[in-house]
Amino acid sequence: MLYLDYAATTPPYPEVVEAVREVMVRFYGNPSSIHRIGMEAERLVIQSRETIAGILRVKPAELIFTSCGTESNNLAVKGAALAARNRGNHMITTPIEHASVSESVRQLESLGFRITVVPVDESGAVRLDKLEEALDAETVLVSVMHVNNEMGRIQPIADVARLLKAYPAALLHVDGVQSVGKLPFSPAELGIDLLSASAHKFRGPKGAGFLYCREGVRLEPLLAGGGQEGGSRSGTENVPLIVGMAKALRMATDRLDDAIERKRLFRAVLAEGIASIPELRLTGPTDGEGMAPHIVHLTFPGMKSEVVVHALERHGYFISTKSACSSGEEKPSGTLLAMGFDKPRAVSGLRISYPEDYTEDDARRFVTALRDVVAELRPMIRKSKQAGGSPR
Amino acid sequence: MDAIYLDNAATTPMHPEVLEAMLPYFREHYGNPSSIHSFGRDARTALNRARDGMAAILGCKPGELIYTSGGTESNNTAIFGAVSAAQAKRPGVRPHIVTTAVEHHAVLHPCERLEQLGCDVTYVAADSSGLVNASDVEAALRPETALISVMYVNNEVGTVQPIEAIGTIARERGIPFHVDAVQALGKLPLKLDELPVDLMSLSAHKIYGPKGVGLLYMRSTLAFPPYLYGGNQERKRRSGTENVAGIVGFAKAAQLFAQDVAANNAAIERLRDTLLQRLAAALGPDGFAVSGHPVHRVPHIINISFFGLDTETLLMNLDLEGVAASSGSACTAGSLETSHVLQAMNLPDEVTRTAIRFSLGLGNSIPQVEKVADIIATIRRRLTYR
User: Fold this and answer.
1) In order of start, what are the domains of chain B with their CATH numbers?
2) Which residue of A201, B16, B303, B376 has the lowest C-beta tally within 10 Å?
3) What's the CA gap between B366 and B270, in Å, rounded?
4) Chain A, chain B: beta-carbon pairs less than 8 Å apart
5) Distances in Å between the alpha carbon of A200 and those of A73, A147, A207, A261?
6) Among A residues 263-322, those touching chain B with beta carbons less than 8 Å apart
7) pLDDT digits (tens, 9 = 90+) for B350-378
8) B24 interfaces chain A, CB cutoff of 8 Å
9) What is the pTM of this model?
């Protein structure tokens, strides 16, 4: 049995569960209460904020705790655009964003914002030349994800930030849900104004996220009430999960270089294995250049991805089709279409995502199962003139 | 020194059984409910079971429950959603909201925001017991009223509002009716199949459940735009990966504490009587006054003014003695401004400047509240001695 869907969600580290449990038992106060029990809870929130700020090399006051990555993205995109409305009404994004960004953008469009969706190239990277063309004096927000959640392409965030330098009114929001805890970076040093993160993607608990909001960037709050989180996000702080999130991020980043190296080795075995199965096509270069270390994506033209997922499940391997949030649907992947994939490839995407503690042997066993599954399914492959691959 | 926690309206300690129910969903059943494999299906099954359980307790359909990150999100979703829906239905008409002056900030601040955005809001007054008159709500209604929002139980003084009467008026007029029931859950029987309520906000951490989980009940006849957009969880009404463990914990807490409310209330009522009797014996019946309605009230919230002792001084001294109480709602406690609720009740300065909210819970005991009364008497002797 091997769970290979870490991009959908992860098992929290046992130490994280223990920390959450301990806070739930011992530190139940409301951080807004002024008595000792409340202040103990508040201290935990302050410490967690400092821990995360230290890891990201940002100021503690620049972090807003939220209930999840989706909330962080909604708050960043809508909060920043609405607060900047008097300075301009144009925003730029890409066709491969997570739905929590693209749907927020669509909502802004209905409120009168002008939206430019800048294309990506065949590798899935945003076209910097097109982005530069799209920028104008009216641009108040550019939202580009760091690591694509479906196929793992790392976006050239530093280059995007460099282009934005000539447009001081334009803020850069980066959906970092698949990069925080996975890649070594500091949003402040990369030139990011707003960065979204979600705890349960880096082995923290579900129900906690944060938004880095650079000092001086104004956000219109989406939740009004008790004025927690500096007024940017009201609601009693979820103390145990905030503590769990900070602990998970510390554990995920403690030996990050080592973790990345181990994931790269796992990736290399998978990539080589996939390349050796003619029916399958690896997305991105075999050496993983430009790709996130923890995600491998492939297509199986002529085969619906759900069928493969379920066949692998019978062998004890749990992978996914596209992002978990949209996996119920049977439409071709918008991300893969945007990269220029034809329909047979765009409906057959498969995502494998994994932690650092899986071994190369695990990877080899998975490749064997994948080979067996392809053999089982071979008679069912739908032949299509369009099909990108050339199944034997 | 063991602390005596009399701030259960701010938040409650989690019940061990709730924690036990949650832990498997942090450990082995960690799947994303949207995943199509068995890890996802396990998580989905847990979600469905929790939702069905909540729906059975509340007397509504499972599909009418939207899980949120807490009471604040539930309130914001209901209020902003009602206005957006009204604007879509009647473009160009300036929406109007009727609420009360004694609501929680998670209702008042969204309303104030909507005023800035071009809506009208009427804040119906309360009487000196904190009670809102249903006919005052009715008198405030206009043809363009898009929402009535009235809390069930006031979080500072415990007064119970005439929700059925207001809801009946709302029904007659066809106006959506939102009830912030965060302090009512576990204290009053919330039977949505009997109550004329369209939207109701609930929070888990007020009934020995986890922080970070809330519910918005939305009657199936309503369709509001969501607060969060994205992966279309919660039937497109609230996106975001579900907090599976928290949702399971909420269902467990509701199962334990929101069903047999009479038994819980009887225990709390005994604590309340003991506290007040002991205070009367120690301070004399004129040494303090209880705010809030004498009859239309819940047992767990007791707002007491100790004449001659200002709120901050008494709270600090209580804290030093290991007693946790509050000046009002926790969310504004940090600022220690005079409570907007007590101000709206038009109480004399002498009362508002000396008010302390004690909120009782099932973790409290008779000896604890007796001790608190004695401690207050000691503090008063110390502070008023010249």
Assistant:
1) 4-12+261-385 (3.90.1150.10), 16-259 (3.40.640.10)
2) B16
3) 8
4) 264
5) 15, 16, 8, 22
6) 306, 309-310, 313, 318-321
7) 999 999 999 999 999 999 999 999 999 99
8) no
9) 0.94
